[in-house]
């Protein structure tokens, strides 16, 4: 078969319209630094944990992975990013199964983010309402956390994001940049508020904790423990730093070689600075003992964000900071809408998924992948309502698929290094492969990640979802392989070629 007929067409149809700011913000949204300062990490703090040291270690282990991503995104800058690398270096079936599994897991994550965005809104409404004695605001926050309203709110927000991306792809990227700037700016403002209240941080924070229904705790544990600090590393590793594939996934649309070359490292460094500064100002203002005691005992109501709102001093500043937290949630949904569509587009371009998913509007928008994203996320939102929000939390346990995926990317780096005599990739790949092997093990055995219950038995919902996702992905590839073979198209030949831009 001629090379020109392997793919759906001879060019992707996507437009190079993503500037340096857009791709940096896309990556930062992928790493979700703002939510690391909310409730994704601090509620799991142990006596003796030092989040600054844990963050530094997590950052250092992310550097080899960033090197691998930077190497490949400059060498093979194609839509689909690491899916293309895995499928060409290792095997088309492996690339498809892993990428499709990751996207299904991502759909569940985006649906959970959309659904539980109401919890961030409720946190903001409840705290501002409590501080200012506004019962109506408190009641409104409580209403929005009810399942049906959480569903409606989440779906409407996501539908608006999808619509913007469909109308014009550039608008979707501009939305990412706007949300990123607002998120980062309000995070900095929140840091400033905390630092400005260092002298009475403990007193005011204690009042806020009591007002929100918590009980101010004291601390008698160690000032530092390596074991407790390293215990926190997987939380940072699985929820923040490794998620650097957003920029590479849209590589074919990025303008300029420098944007390709530096986007991963700059985004990683900025994320490290944000997370470190957030934890740092809390330790500095409140002292290690007070802050650690509240994280351990009030981890879901005492966070960087709730502390900043409580210390703000006036309602306008409270709302600015509160909107910043809410914006981080929307930021994640906005990056997700773009990244999901590009992975699906890449697999469809390789003929694994229906070719209709490669249709692109004149404005560079892969319209049908966005529509698939909207309906699939809506389906998962409905499932969350159907099975109950507490049961739906088990879907977070599918993070094990993400750790496994990055392990496969690391192996691809090793294999490519050996085959092409790129010597530096081999030891770097070995380091990241070992690291993600460990993280895969932790995510599959630590009850805090949701894959297993406290008794060590797998959560049935999570287990069924993970196994079902892998089986479904395998079936999709096998069916696609056989279907294309009947048409005289050998998928194995496709995976020997790099797709066109």
UniProtKB/TrEMBL annotation:
Cross-referenced InterPro entries: AA/rel_permease1 (IPR002293), APC_superfamily (IPR050367)
Annotated compartments: Cell membrane
Ranges in coiled-coil conformation: none
Pfam families: AA_permease_2
GO MF term set: transmembrane transporter activity
GO (cellular component) term, any one: plasma membrane
Keyword terms, alphabetized: Cell membrane, Membrane, Transmembrane, Transmembrane helix
Subcellular location, principal: membrane
Topological relation to the membrane, as annotated: Multi-pass membrane protein
Domain of life: Archaea
Protein name: Amino acid permease
Organism: Sulfurisphaera ohwakuensis
């Amino acid at each position: 078969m001629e090379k020109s007929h392997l793919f759906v067409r001879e060019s992707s149809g996507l437009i190079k319209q993503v500037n340096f700011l857009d791709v940096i913000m896309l990556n930062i949204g992928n790493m979700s630094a703002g939510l690391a300062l909310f409730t994704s990490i601090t509620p799991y703090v142990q006596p003796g944990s030092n989040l600054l040291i844990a963050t530094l270690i997590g950052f250092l282990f992310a550097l080899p992975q960033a090197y691998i991503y930077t190497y490949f995104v400059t060498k093979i800058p194609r839509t689909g990013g690491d899916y293309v690398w895995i499928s060409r270096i290792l095997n088309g079936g492996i690339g498809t199964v892993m990428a499709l599994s990751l996207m299904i897991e991502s759909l569940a994550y985006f649906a959970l983010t959309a659904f539980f965005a109401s919890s961030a809104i409720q946190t903001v409404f409840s705290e501002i309402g409590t501080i200012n004695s506004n019962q109506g605001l408190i009641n409104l926050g409580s209403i929005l956390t009810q399942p049906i309203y959480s569903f409606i709110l989440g779906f409407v927000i996501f539908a608006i994001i999808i619509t913007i991306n469909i109308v014009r792809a550039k608008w979707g990227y501009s939305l990412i940049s706007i949300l990123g700037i607002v998120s980062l700016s309000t995070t900095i403002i929140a840091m400033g508020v905390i630092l400005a209240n260092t002298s009475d941080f403990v007193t005011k924070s204690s009042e806020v904790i009591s007002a929100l229904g918590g009980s101010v705790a004291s601390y008698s544990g160690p000032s530092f423990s390596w074991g407790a600090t390293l215990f926190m590393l997987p939380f940072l590793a699985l929820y923040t730093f490794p998620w650097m594939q957003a920029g590479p996934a849209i590589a074919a649309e990025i303008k300029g070689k420098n944007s390709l070359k530096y986007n991963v490292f700059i985004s990683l460094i900025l994320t490290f600075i944000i997370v470190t500064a957030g934890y740092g100002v809390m330790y500095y203002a409140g002292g290690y003992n007070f802050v650690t005691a509240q994280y351990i005992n009030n981890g879901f109501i005492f966070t960087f964000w709730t502390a900043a709102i409580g210390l703000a001093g006036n309602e306008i500043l409270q709302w600015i900071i509160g909107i910043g937290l809410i914006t981080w949630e929307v930021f994640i949904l906005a990056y997700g809408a773009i990244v999901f569509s590009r992975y699906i587009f890449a697999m469809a371009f390789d003929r694994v998924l229906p070719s209709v998913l490669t249709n692109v509007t004149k404005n560079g928008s892969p319209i049908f992948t966005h529509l698939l994203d909207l309906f699939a996320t809506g389906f998962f939102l409905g499932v969350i309502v159907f099975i109950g929000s507490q049961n739906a939390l088990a879907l977070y346990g599918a993070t094990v698929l993400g750790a496994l995926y990055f392990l496969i990317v690391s192996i691809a780096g090793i294999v490519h290094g050996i085959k092409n005599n790129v010597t530096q990739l081999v030891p770097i790949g070995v380091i990241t492969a070992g690291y993600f092997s460990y993280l895969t093990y932790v995510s599959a055995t630590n009850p805090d990640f949701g894959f297993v219950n406290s008794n060590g038995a797998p959560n049935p919902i999570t287990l069924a979802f993970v196994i079902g996702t892998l089986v479904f992905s395998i079936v999709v590839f096998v069916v696609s392989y056989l279907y294309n073979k009947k048409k005289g198209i050998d998928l194995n030949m496709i995976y020997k070629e790099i797709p066109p831009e």
